[in-house]
Amino acid sequence: MLTLQMAVAYFTQHIEKSFWPVVNGGELAVAICFGFLLLVFTGGGAYAVDAAHGRR
């Protein structure tokens, strides 16, 4: 859901100037979008709640 939210933020706020994030100032929105997308496919790992629960 957060990936979609950041993609919508990029396309509604930054796309008006140019498509490329370097030109239109949307680098942070794109980086966060891909960061959340990475978490979707790789999981939380050591920072996940279930991993912390298993250490008790």
From TrEMBL:
This is DoxX family protein. The chain crosses the membrane at residues 28-49. Keywords: Membrane, Transmembrane, Transmembrane helix.
